[in-house]
TrEMBL record, chain B:
<dbReference type="InterPro" id="IPR014982">
    <property type="entry name" value="GSCFA"/>
</dbReference>
<protein>
    <submittedName>
        <fullName>GSCFA domain-containing protein</fullName>
        <ecNumber>3.1.-.-</ecNumber>
    </submittedName>
</protein>
<keyword id="KW-0378">Hydrolase</keyword>
<dbReference type="Pfam" id="PF08885">
    <property type="entry name" value="GSCFA"/>
</dbReference>
<feature type="domain" description="GSCFA">
    <location>
        <begin position="40"/>
        <end position="310"/>
    </location>
</feature>
<dbReference type="GO" id="GO:0016787">
    <property type="term" value="F:hydrolase activity"/>
</dbReference>
Length: 236, 362
């Protein structure tokens, strides 16, 4: 892997998966110095199997200054993007207003929470490692909410899907996002990691990502990256 | 001179039926029916029932689970939330009264006054299965919907099973003084608050157990008339007693009552059989060897011994079926569907990530 580094001291770093790409592009446009690289660029993840050591090149970058994280190994998309052949739903106790599919199998909130926690363990591990290695603050960027439109998502749903596959209801996807987000926030607060919330201007009244800010079915675009970059600047 | 004992079969004589065999004594004589691997088996009881269910399943028998974890849930989560321990998520059903109550509640014939227990702001406990969710339920709507789902699963289990195995656990229970609803655990132990003016201790006698079980069987047969039933008494001893008696005496009383109740019920009903799991473990022939260090739990070797005799006397094809490698015939379809779904979801999310990375020249 080839991390992006400007070699300047005290330069903040950004670690994360594909979602970090839009921020790197926005940073480059704005001339904002930012070290790092999306994890997914290299042939192997930049940490060992049990997430106890970063690759030396990454480690060097983390020791320069603040570390931003947009780590997101995609738990919510893996669990809720495509409608499961055995439809399920759950109630988010903090948002009783969100509709529930009466024909789906109900999974209790705490069971969903436990399942998501297990799926998020890798994200938690990376954040823990980053916190232990970083010279400055670690600031986690909460990823953007899902798109509401199933039609838009379907246009990006490629060959992997079967003809019978459907996209999960927007409400289930939103609930999964909110649950994942709450778990990440809880983890960050417990571990002294600062949080950048999604820019309010990019979110519609119902809580979905506005259509001005998507790049594909599960990713935001550079315009969204610019908004996040503005929030990042407040920490540097 | 001849008399009724002069040419008695060996099993009728302690010296030949027990002393001669010691721990290998086999107390089962002429079990009245057989079960086959295709028979749908439902189990209920205390903590001993899941051990039996697990062994039946492992041996390729059709342990019917009508309330399954959604395949999305990791196995660890499913286990934590008590999926698959019993045929439906009813938890421990210690007493015959609780069993009758479960049936009546599932069919809407009994609605207890004490319907839910609150613990702080974020925990709602089901008084009738207080340990089913480690942290209770998150809100009232979820609780009600989950319970409706649970009762549907109970009805499906009761209506579609071929064999029902009930393992009597305790005679002791705590009840609501107003409507007689019984709880599997004393209020206050794992939820709720104990209030002497509301809750009363009850220790069932033989007559009550027989009456409750007879009513249960009558009402069960209204929805499943060809059912075969196996009754057993759990050899697991009490952890504690709600009475003032010594716990050893209280535990012995409970086992004795249930043993007598089984005899009374099976004598009148040819479709109900008694399986002597209690005698296999707790009889003097074992010299206590099947009890764990706490002298109340049953060791794996004890469960093995029970199941060896169960397969020998109650099933015809158990060993052959298990040997044929068909143990997981029901689950295979579900698993492969789940694997395909997970693979498609993973492939889709990866391709969407790759598309974004292309913008960065990756």
């Amino acid at each position: 892997m080839s991390p992006l580094a400007n070699g300047l001291p005290h330069t903040p770093a950004l670690i994360g998966n594909s979602s970090s790409a839009l921020i790197f592009i926005a940073a480059e446009e704005a001339g904002f110095p930012l070290n790092g690289a999306p994890f997914a660029l290299g042939p192997q993840p930049p940490f060992n199997a049990d997430i106890t050591e970063f690759h030396p090149e990454i480690l060097q970058l983390l020791k320069q200054g603040a570390v931003f994280s947009i780590v997101n190994t995609g738990a919510r998309d893996l669990l809720t993007l495509i409608q499961h052949p055995q439809p399920f739903d759950f109630i988010l106790p903090d948002r009783p207003d969100l509709p529930l599919d009466p024909n789906a199998q109900l999974i209790s909130f705490y069971a969903m929470r436990d399942a998501f926690k297990r799926h998020l363990n890798k994200d938690f591990g990376i954040l823990t490692l980053a916190k232990s290695c970083a010279a400055g603050k670690v600031i986690h960027i909460i990823s953007q909410p899902p798109l509401e439109s199933e039609e838009i998502i379907l246009t990006y749903a490629p060959w992997q899907l079967k003809e019978s596959d459907r996209i999960s209801s927007p409400w289930l996807r939103l609930k999964a996002y909110l649950l994942c987000t709450s778990l990440l926030i809880e983890f960050c607060k417990e571990n002294g990691i600062e949080i950048i919330y999604p820019p309010a201007i990019a979110i519609d009244d119902k809580g979905f990502l506005k259509t001005d800010y998507y790049s594909n079915a599960t990713h935001a675009n550079v315009a969204y990256g610019r908004l996040v970059l503005e929030k990042m600047k407040e920490w540097v | 001179m001849t008399h009724p004992y002069s040419d008695a079969a060996s099993h009728r004589l302690w010296r030949r039926g027990v002393s001669a065999f010691e721990a290998n004594a086999d107390p089962i004589v002429n079990f009245p029916f057989r079960i086959s691997p295709s028979d749908k088996i439902v189990t209920a009881g205390g903590c001993f029932a899941p051990l039996i269910a697990n062994r039946l399943q492992t041996a390729g028998y059709n342990f019917l689970v009508t309330e399954k974890a959604h395949p999305l849930l990791p196995e660890e989560t499913a286990a934590l939330f008590n999926y698959g321990r019993h045929s439906a998520r009813y938890g421990s059903v210690h007493t015959a009264r609780q069993l009758l109550q479960l049936l009546r509640r599932a069919y809407g014939r009994f609605e207890p006054i004490e319907d839910m227990w609150f613990e702080g702001d974020n925990k709602l406990v089901d008084p009738f299965r207080p340990l089913i969710q480690p942290d209770g339920f998150a809100c009232i709507e979820e609780y009600r919907l989950d319970r409706a789902q649970h009762f549907a699963a109970v009805r499906e289990a009761f209506e579609t099973m071929d064999v029902f195995i009930y393992i009597f656990s305790m005679t002791e229970c705590w009840e609501n003084r107003k409507d007689g609803a019984v709880f599997p655990l004393c209020p206050g132990v794992a939820g709720g608050h104990f209030d002497e003016s509301v809750h009363a201790f009850r220790n069932q006698d033989v007559g009550e157990v027989v009456a409750d079980m007879t009513l249960f069987l009558e009402e069960l047969r209204e929805v499943n008339k060809d059912l075969r039933v196996i009754l057993a008494v759990s050899p697991v001893q009490f952890i504690a007693t709600g009475s003032d008696d010594h716990v050893l005496c209280a535990s012995t009383y409970s086992k004795a009552v249930h043993r007598a109740a089984c005899e009374a019920i099976t004598k009148c009903d040819p479709a109900v059989a008694y399986f002597p799991s209690y005698e296999i473990i707790a009889g003097p022939q074992t010299r206590g060897r099947y009890f764990d260090d706490d002298l109340r739990s049953v060791t794996d070797a004890g469960v093995d011994r029970i199941m060896d005799l169960f397969f020998k006397h109650v099933t015809d094809e158990g060993a052959q079926w298990a040997a044929s490698g068909n143990e997981t015939r029901v689950e295979i379809g579900v698993k492969s569907e789940q694997v395909n779904y997970a693979a498609r979801a993973q492939s889709l999310t990866k391709s969407l990530c790759d598309a974004v990375l292309l913008d960065l020249g990756g």
